[in-house]
Write a sequence for this structure.
């Protein structure tokens, strides 16, 4: 479970890029195309970390964050937002909603890996 | 396509006009004419016909310096598309309704056509991206040797393409594109709130 990461993004291409950045580090990457699909995955799977986009159909990143923070079982799962939005207002909103961190796309794979390692408190590979 | 004088002028309709250049994008929920001039670059016009929201980007993937750097090139292309889709969804567009029209990727001036050339890489990327994302392509005008002036009406989804010749304009365009290809977009920052 320690290495299981759920990436939630409506873009299959972005999910593939995140998978490509994290799998070589030994993480097991699960995917969901929106917040609702993510909740379905999380209903029967424990993950160490959720990486989530903001703008998604059906259920966006903020709604997913709120749902996780309201769920006693998922309240403490770290959530990193991965968004094209980099303005301070959005970051503040993410922080208030319970995000653990905010990464602005396009992401540097090394910095993504470093952020994931820090959040999971894993030593550098 | 046809002579511009033969159809109602955008200005006459009171539509906003926006011109974008390489690295930029524009999305609009109000009727807007988005224009751009393309050489090797590619523009994708995305349209949500139900919401009448349209957007256009204009990007040039840098040549991959080494085979193992292809991931970088891919990342910047995905980002250019991701930004456009995100901007449209922010305005209320629905991703499953999006349709695409794709333009550019020409070998202008003395640029030699080859599978590894920048225009070919750009064309391959955009086709693969739209296929992977399940966004239907309603029209395309790609490749060739002519620069293109593209005019996209976000209210109707209609796109007019005009071939551009004229050595002066093409030379200026080529310089701009070469500069853009040499400077890929910077990666975004990372903030951890509570670790």
């Amino acid at each position: 479970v320690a290495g299981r990461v759920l990436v939630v993004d409506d873009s299959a291409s972005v999910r593939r890029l995140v998978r490509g950045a994290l799998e070589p580090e030994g993480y097991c990457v699960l995917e969901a195309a929106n917040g609702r699909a993510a909740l379905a995955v999380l209903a029967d799977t424990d993950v160490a970390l959720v990486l989530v986009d903001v703008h998604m159909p059906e259920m966006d990143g903020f709604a997913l964050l709120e749902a996780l923070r309201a769920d006693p079982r998922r309240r403490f799962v770290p959530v990193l937002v991965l968004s094209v939005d980099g303005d301070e207002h959005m970051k503040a909103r993410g922080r208030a909603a319970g995000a653990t961190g905010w990464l602005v796309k396009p992401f540097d794979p090394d910095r993504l890996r470093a952020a994931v390692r820090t959040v999971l408190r894993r030593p550098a590979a | 396509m046809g002579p511009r004088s033969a159809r109602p002028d955008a200005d006459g309709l009171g539509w906003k006009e926006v011109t974008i250049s390489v690295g930029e994008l524009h999305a609009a929920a109000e009727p807007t004419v988005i224009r751009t001039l393309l050489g090797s670059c590619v523009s994708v016009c995305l349209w949500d016909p139900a919401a009448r929201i349209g957007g256009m980007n204009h990007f040039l993937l840098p040549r991959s310096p080494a085979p193992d750097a292809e991931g970088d090139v891919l990342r910047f292309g995905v980002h250019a598309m991701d930004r456009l889709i995100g901007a449209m969804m922010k305005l209320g567009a629905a991703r499953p309704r999006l349709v695409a029209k794709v333009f550019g990727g020409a070998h202008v001036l003395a640029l030699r056509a080859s599978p590894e050339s920048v225009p070919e890489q750009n064309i391959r990327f955009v086709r693969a991206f739209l296929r992977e994302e399940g966004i239907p392509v309603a029209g395309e005008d790609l490749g060739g040797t002519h620069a293109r002036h593209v005019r996209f009406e976000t209210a109707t989804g209609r796109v007019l393409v005009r071939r551009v010749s004229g050595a002066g304009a093409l030379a200026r365009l080529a310089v701009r594109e070469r500069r853009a290809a040499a400077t890929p977009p910077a990666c975004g920052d990372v903030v951890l709130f509570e670790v």
Remarks:
- The interface with chain B takes residues 10-14, 16-17, 20, 54-57, 83-86, 91, 95, 99-109, 111-112, 114-115, 118-119 of chain A (CB under 8 Å).
- Chain A is about 40% helix and 20% strand.
